[in-house]
Amino acid sequence: MVAARVCRFPRRCYNHPMSTRRYRREQDQGGTPREQLKRVTVLRRLLPLVWPYRARFAAATAVLLLGSALTLVYPQAARRAVDASVAGLGTASLDLLALAVAGVFIVNAGATWLRHYLMSWLGERVVADLRARVYRRLLEQPLAFFHDKPSGELTGRLAADVATVQGIVSGELSMALREIVTLVGGLVLLFVQSWQLTLAMLAVVPPLLVLTFGFGKRIRKMSVTVQDKLAESSAQAQEAVGAIATVQAFRREPHEVKSYGARVDDFFGAAVRLSSWRGLFIATMSLSGWLAIATMLWLGGRAIIAGTMSAGDLTAFMLYSSMVAFSLGGLASLWGSLQSAAGATTRLFEIVDREPEIRDPSEPTALPPPIGTVSFERVTFTYPTRKDARVLDDVSIEVAAGETLAVVGRSGAGKSTLAALLYRFFDVDEGRVLVDGVDVRHARLAELRGRLAIVAQEPVLFSGTVAENIAYARPEASTEQIERAAGLAHAHEFVAAFPEGYQTRIGERGVKLSGGQRQRIAIARALLADPRILILDEATSSLDGESEALVHEALQTLMKGRTTIVIAHRLSTVKDADRIVVLDRGRVVDVGSHDALVARPGIYRTLVEHQLVAA
Length: 615
Known about the structure:
The protein is α/β, with parallel strands linked by helices. Helices cover about 60% and strands about 10% of the residues. It has a 6-stranded mixed β-sheet with strand order 6-7-8-3-9-10, sandwiched between helices. It has a 4-stranded antiparallel β-sheet with strand order 2-1-4-5, with helices on one face.
């Protein structure tokens, strides 16, 4: 047996996995063989998007074939006109020929319009479908996915990347088909006119193919860089605009402008380099085509002198050669565009193909009629993005139906993580989370989350109207139901005072409302959802005394008859709880009523004494 040879210098050995030469070669070729195959597959997947609209695509293709066929008639008309002129046959035949060509022009113009309309409709429809698929898949992803991806980058994929795909389907695809038909038809007719000259012309095709693929690889890599630079600049802009109050409060406008400008300049530089290479590519292909035409003109002139070709034949041959040359140049340009779009297409299908880790089980367990029990059984959890820091460690908590349980502890103790696990935004590493006796991992997400409602410290409102925000969990709710929920949440009075009442638009994230108003709108939304289990995640910790009193009263209404888990620092929402669970460093360290916990030394009494729980 021959021993396997060991690489003494692994980074110099191409076959070694750690080879620097291998890495550079793969990068120059556009990635590893698997990545290259994946890219090709992604590009091919654009065509199935057209399949549901195949009838319209077939009609567009038929019109395109008609227009291309009519285009191939022009050189024959030129051949007859030249030969008639040379033979001195008079103007009558030329007049008839001109009328026939004019008719062909008119039909071709109509076919061009119809093709453009059909392909544009197809492109817009396919892009709308793709945008909806990407957006739906985005919303299916778990929270951990969004922790790793800036929102600006993701919205950039929906905007810039989808627009790039739109250009392929509505423009480049149609043009590619037209150029291919013209190329094939022109080549056939060239062989009919003179197979000797055609073979001489085709001698330049192999070098052109080498140029095409060589430039294509370079353009593809640069286009991915351009898309990444654009996504980075979009992400920064969205982040700064979303935190505009903080930016202005700390006088960081110049810094943000400078930073954004630097990213825009990076994008500009990458885009210019890409444009330069694409321009060089197109210019090289055009030069090759024109040189081929010049060669044909020289050879054809010699054939006329030798008497083996007529002037009309040479005219038709040159026109067909021009068509073939322009078709090759057009295909080369389209190939460059396709390579540029490969990066955008890959990024989109990365989202479409991504299966969410948190999804419905293959055989879900139906939840029983709503009871309202919650159990955390020996739960251990670590966030995917922070594997080195255990957030919950062997936590067991039982919440009875209709009970109000408060969870307190220092910042970072794991309080809000309990709510995230209950909603199944994440899955536990060990243990179980049960709702009405069913493991949340075995239930349908929609059914599970339909039994829950949360009022957070910073409630998330949308830029629509007050009514739309209250009815977000129940879009079918009537006006009376919306107003009743607002009344119970002590929101009706201030909403009714608005000039447009419940149709008042509250701005992005509810910026037109005060903190207390936003909180009461969120409570009204939870009331309308009518959950069996309610989570209050520090719902009053950022309010002033007057607002807190109103919100607290609304919360008391909301909590009636429901199982409630209160995550809070304020004594006003903790002291009346049936039980209080104290967390410290991810573990349950104490359980009891407010009076019992204050009476004995421990973390809870320390929190009260230091006014982290405000009396």
